[in-house]
Amino acid sequence: MTVLKTSMRNFLAHKGRMALSAVAVLLSVAFVCGTLVFTDTMNATFDKLFANTASDVSVGPEKDDDAQVTGKPETLPAALREKLAKVDGVAGVEPHATSKQLTVVNDKNKSLSPTSGAPTVGTNWGDSQKKSVEITSGHEPHGPAEAVLDADTAGKHGVKTGDKLRVIAAPGDFTVSVVGIATFKTTNPGAALLYFDTPTAQAKLLGSTGEFSGYGLTAASGVSDEQLKQRVSEALGSSARDYAVRTAAETKEENKKDIGSLLDVMKYALLGFAGIAVLVGVFLIVNTFSMLVAQRTREIGLMRAIGSGRAQILKSVLTEALLLGVVGSVLGIGGGIGLAVGLMKVMGSMGMKLDMGELTIKATTPVVGLAIGVLVTLLASLVPAFKATRISPMSALRDAGTPADGKAGKVRASIGLVLTALGGLALAAAAKADDAAAGSGVLAIGVLLSLIGFIVVGPLLAGFVVRAISVVVLRVFGPVGRLAERNALRNPRRTGATASALMIGLALVAALSVVGSSMVASATDQLDKSVGADFIVQSENQQPLSPAVVKAVTSAGHVEHVSEYAVVSAKITTPDGRTVTQRLSAASPTYADDVRAETVKGNLKDAYGKDAMSVPEGFAKDHGIKPGDRLKVAMTGGRPAELTVKAVTSDDTSIDQGAVYTNIATARTYLPADKMPLDFMLLAKAADGRTKEAAAALKASVEQYPQVKVRDQSDYKKLIQDQVGQLLNIIYGLLALAIIVAILGVVNTLALSVVERTREIGLMRAIGLSRRQMRRMIRLESVVIALFGALLGLGLGMAWGTTAQKLLALQGLGVLDIPWPTITAVFLGSAVVGLLAALVPAFRAGRMNVLNAIATD
Questions:
Q1: H-assigned helices in 474-491
Q2: 180 CB neighbour count, 10 Å cutoff
Q3: Helix (H, G, I), strand (E, B) or coil at 121
Q4: Kindly report the CA angle at 211 between 205 and 217, in degrees rounded to 5?
């Protein structure tokens, strides 16, 4: 009880000093709990949606990952409906006619498709739809000219009943009038949904009234889903292997897999950033307790002198840490729930409306948050706590605040240098790796060892780096600058730990900046070297181009030629007797001029001849293929072909790396029309001297198709840069949490350092140091610590990024580009961070009463 009282007294006495450490714990726990609450809510919401929409038993085409992308979904014959209705135990059969490969355009020629990447779904109106949505305005669709639109899409684009919409689907374009608005009962998964009557959905989406995309079966009373599934499978007989027959539970799990992979990526990415914040927070907590122990040296010595044992001192410090961990964790759990709500609102702005009533807080979430916060705080306080137990009773005779560290020990420095050297060797080995997969593992080891090495050797580096920075930054401020330098060097271990927290976040920023910049530079370089086409025509939503679009583009004026490009699924039997699944790049012969792929054997243009093909260098090496070999090629859905290898292309590229080329006419020879994939992309070459005219003509040709974009090479380069930039901005935003925690560490270090040096500050003020000079000294000390951390972090990050780029070079991204403007901005920004972090501690130091400060023990 005495230990608890003492710990509580110390904790409350230093509540201001503990606050920043508590914020670090709070942020870390909030990120973890917020991630768990958000993903649990998403899972619960989709579970409810899938449970509401799943039929007792569903029958659909067996999923084929190798199916050709024809723009139309795989279907089942309409005659199957009658056969399923006769199965014993089937109370009802509902046919489905659904497609996710369409675009909906309003009367202003603007696409209604989601910008979040979610699909636009067209389906027939039926009982299963009534489980998830209800018509809140208008009526159900009847006839080929009517449709119902979901309320979220209608609200976002200002669509109301009576408005006309144009639907662009693979079978052709058609116009409908909105006769109803449907509102989701649970959640809108982010998709845009358009409902038609069944005959219209069949004809316009599937291309035939004799087909459906699947069937939903309702079980009769007393018949379980499993029993019905078994009976359906028996009724289908040997043809059952061509169908996917699933119970409601299996359908739900299948749907969860599709969305679950995305949720898992989000979950583990967010938890990864939370882990970085936790790691940074450890440094803050260690520094806090190290300084608190140092400041209480005399107090602890007196406690030892009056009989307190080492165990009691240890318990006292750890109890303070426990209190800090509990307070920070409890606040963090609440903050995590708020963060989850914020993420739900962000998803809502992207089109995925999540009902706040579905907010899911599992019992394990606060337990996990509390455990993380408390354990991290206790572990971080162990070293200072054990140090406190080594304070002798004689320390009661010394002044409090005596530096407890001194210079970094030789053993620590040696270990740090060894770890750094091993990390450097691992990075060098990764940079020279011949295989990207193996090299990435070595890179991970190198990153870990070099990071730990820099953290351990930080105090040793502080002595050299801080002096070097001071020569440039501090010496111009005269005696005040020299005092700031000495203060930063007074306790190298503390300076190293404070800088290390900032170093971690900035190292990741630098590494990702190098990788992102190198990816953009490499792609730009490959475009300049390899792409001879003037224009690239693609769909914004990554869907294939409809025949109408291809016809419009190929008929545009001022264009020398247009190259079609489609991706064909096939199985290739190689000379070594193996059969491998491969994607064929089926293109027009002019594609060889539009994309100049380097060959190591043969001539690529010959690969576009009759019954000819090319293979990539690695594929040829693995299977012993050489020009002149005839390979058996079975295109999915078509008749087998025998193609002659005319060229072997180099793997040293990022554009079409690993592509197997053949003439698109060859693919059409062996594939029936309904199995021939749609063009994924078109490349156009302007007539001589007609580039501007061709650009205008091409853009005019696709004006009625807002989902299709015509880009020249500069536009495409900008697209790549924007995509990489958006990804990096998201990552930087998440890393900001770790950097914020690191900044709090600098604030905490300076604040406690000011308290520790109270008498010294009083004496300096007494001999003539002004308040302004005092504040400047504190600010300069903060700046040099921040720049020290930035220099280590940016240097380490550039080494990581450079190594990662060497591995990416194996994938064709061979240009190393150091983003010096970003690196410079981050370095200068660190100085600003240092200034801001010192504002409050410097203000407090400047306001100290001189006589009271001198009288402080």
A1: 478-490
A2: 19
A3: strand
A4: 105
- CA 707 to mean position of chain CA atoms: 25
Which range in 249-258, 516-525, 750-759, 833-842 is most confidently predicted, on average pLDDT? 516-525
Residue 99: DSSP 8-state? B
Ramachandran quadrant class, 455 (left: phi over 0; alpha: psi -120 to 50; beta: rest): alpha
Do residues 841 and 783 make contact, with C-beta atoms less than 8 angstroms apart? no
Q: What number is the average pLDDT over the span 254-268? A: 73
Number of Cβ within 10 Å of residue 577's Cβ equals: 7
Contact 369, 29 (CB under 8 A): yes
Domain residue extents for the chain: 1-56+249-404, 57-248, 459-532+713-857, 547-704
Contact 637, 645 (CB under 8 A): no
Contacts of 828 (CB under 8 A, 6+ apart): none
Q: How far apart are CA 452 and CA 445, in angstroms?
A: 11
Alpha carbons 84 and 56: distance in angstroms, whole number: 13
What does the block give as tokens for 733? 């935003």
CA-to-CA distance for 102 and 169, rounded, in angstroms?
5
Cα–Cα distance, 177 to 506 (Å, whole number): 55
Token pair of 118 as six digits: 């979610």
Q: Which residue has the tokens 């291309």?
A: 207
Q: Which residue has the tokens 């490349």?
A: 683
Q: Which amino acid is at 197?
A: D
Beta-bridged to residue 193, according to DSSP, are 121
pLDDT for res 551: 93
Q: Which helix (H) or strand (E) holds 218?
A: strand 214-219
Closest CA to 97 of 62, 66, 67, 123: 123
Model pLDDT, residue 4: 57
Q: Which two tokens stand for residue 793?
A: 């972090």
Angle at CA of residue 733, ends 381 and 427, nearest 5°: 70
- d(CA 496, CA 409) in angstroms, rounded, equals 13
Strand partners, 567: 585
- Enter the tokens of residue 100: 């996710």
Instruction: List, for residues 111-162, the tens digit of each pLDDT value.
Output: 888 877 678 899 999 888 888 889 999 999 999 999 999 998 998 899 999 9
What is the three-class DSSP state of 40?
helix
Comparing C-alpha atoms, which of 497, 458, 297, 498 is closest to residue 387? 297
* Phi and psi angles of residue 585, each rounded to the nearest 5 degrees, phi first: -90, 95
Those residues whose C-beta lies under 8 Å from the C-beta of residue 718, and which sit 6 or more positions away, are none
Indicate the burial class of 425 (C-beta count within 10 angstroms; 0-12, 13-18, 19 or more): middle
* Contact indicator for 53, 132 with CB cutoff of 8 Å: yes
pTM of whole model > 0.85? no
Q: How many CA atoms lie within 13 A of 837 on its CB side?
A: 32
The model's pLDDT over 601-647, given as tens digits with 9 standing for 90+, comes to 999 999 999 999 999 999 999 999 999 999 999 999 899 999 999 99
> What is the 8-class DSSP label of residue 687?
P
| Mean predicted confidence (pLDDT) in 656-675 | 92
Output 288 or 32, whichever has higher pLDDT.
Answer: 32
Helix or strand run (H / E) with residue 644: strand 640-649
Phi/psi at 364 (5° precision): -75, -20
- Cα distance between residue 713 and residue 595, in whole Å: 12
φ, ψ of residue 190 to 5 degrees: the values are 100, -10
Pairs from 129-135 (Cβ < 8 Å, separation ≥ 24): 129/182, 129/195, 131/52, 131/53, 131/185, 132/49, 132/52, 132/53, 132/184, 132/185, 132/186, 133/182, 133/183, 133/184, 133/185, 133/193, 134/182, 134/183, 134/185, 135/180, 135/181, 135/182, 135/183
CA distance 204 to 97: 10
Strands (E) in 419-481, as ranges, are none
Give the tokens for residue 847. 């306001």
